[in-house]
Amino acid sequence: MPRQEWSFDGIFGTYDRASLQRGFQVYKEVCSTCHPVKHLYFRDLSEIGYTEEEVKAIAASYQVTNAEPNDQGEMFQRPGRPSDPIPGPFPNDQAARAANNGALPPDQSLIVKAREWGPDYVYAILTGYKEPPSGFKLLEGMNYNEYFPGHQIRMPPPLSDGAVTFADGTPSTVPQMAHDVVTFLSWASEPNLETRHRTGFKVMLFLIVTAGVFYAAKRKIWATAH
Predict the structure, then answer these.
(1) Is residue 53 assigned to a domain?
(2) Domain match, 111 and 186 both
(3) Which terminus of the chain, N or C, has fewer Cβ atoms within 10 Å?
(4) Which helix or strand (DSSP H or E) is residue 21 part of?
(5) Is residue 176 classed as helix, strand or coil in its secondary structure?
(6) Which range marks the domain in which residue 207 is found?
(7) Mind listing the pLDDT tens digit for each residue in 87-103?
(8) What is the number of structural domains in the chain?
(9) DSSP state at residue 118
(10) Do 180 and 208 belong together in one domain?
(11) What are phi and psi of 79, to 5 degrees?
(12) CB–CB of 55/43 below 8 Å?
């Protein structure tokens, strides 16, 4: 599996906010047509750099089913609110399978943590579509992917150059979009990573200082012992 450079790698790793927002855009405009992010709420987007007003605007651009029926006992659609979960493309798994020839598109909110090699694996799948080598028997309805187990995957290539237009002017090449959406999905899988890194650093610093204090105390106490 090819190794990629990620801003969140290592004990001092942090998420690139610009990449997170571009990744959310890729998810919203491309991936969300098939894949849900069941564990994310609109309000969570404030953690990737969106303002409160921007979060409200993003939520309002979706239509969600109200949790309670109206006065006539009927469920109804309304604009989303920050407190709502981000809705998926299908009402249930059966509808998702029916729309995808029996295949169930996996939830993306934990996909990076659920796969060995994590972000490198997801990036490789998104960029690994190629023409099958000579003599390779590709089953009907399948696509050749260099890194997918067995090299046959039902999902067609989801990304193509220029599929989205980034507001910051970043070129929307397939590698760039794949890198950004994997960054977003990595954050979705582990939104507390930065807090964990900061806490770990503070704990290590505390232990180093404490060890120094104990060593100095030991030297003082035993200085006159023979």
Answers:
(1) no
(2) yes
(3) C
(4) helix 17-29
(5) helix
(6) 198-226
(7) 999 999 999 999 988 88
(8) 2
(9) H
(10) no
(11) -60, 145
(12) yes
- Answer whether residue 146 is part of any domain: yes
Interatomic CA distance for residues 113 and 119, integer angstroms: 8
Residue 10: the pLDDT is 86
The packing angle between helices 174-189 and 118-127, to 10°, is 150
Would you state the pLDDT for residue 75? 85
Q: Which residues contact 100 (CB under 8 A, 6 or more apart)?
A: 34, 154
CATH number at residue 180: 1.10.760.10
Residue identified by tokens 């979705």 is 188
Asked if residue 185 is part of any domain, the answer here is yes
Phi, psi of 145, deg, nearest 5: -135, 130
CB 159 within 8 A of CB 126: yes
Q: Are residues 129 and 176 in the same domain?
A: yes
Instruction: Please write the tens of the pLDDT for every residue from 183-206.
Output: 999 999 999 998 888 898 899 999
Residue 70 lies in a domain: no
* CA dist list (Å): 29 to 3, 13, 190: 27, 27, 22
The verdict on 114 and 177 lying in the same domain is yes
